[in-house]
What does this fold into?
Amino acid sequence: MERYTNFKDFYPYYLSEHDNKYTKLLHFIGTTISIYFYVRFFMTFNFMFLLYSLLAGYGFAWIAHFFVEHNKPATFKYPLWSLIGDHKMYLEILQGKHKIF
It folds into this structure.
């Protein structure tokens, strides 16, 4: 795998690792649940909600990569850029740039 030095170059690679619409769908579901737990955390400052957020986001994403896309999540090599990429892809799905249905 190529070493990326900026997010602009990384993001096309990130999208290429999410070719299957069901991979994108599982990411979308996990990110939606994760955002819900972020909000709950900021409402209560109960740190368990941060744990739930991570479990939801990564759980759905990793299931998608291992069982649908059959590849390794980019999170293992690029944790921060993968998180940013996931949220960027989430917004692009909401904007209709990626089809998941």
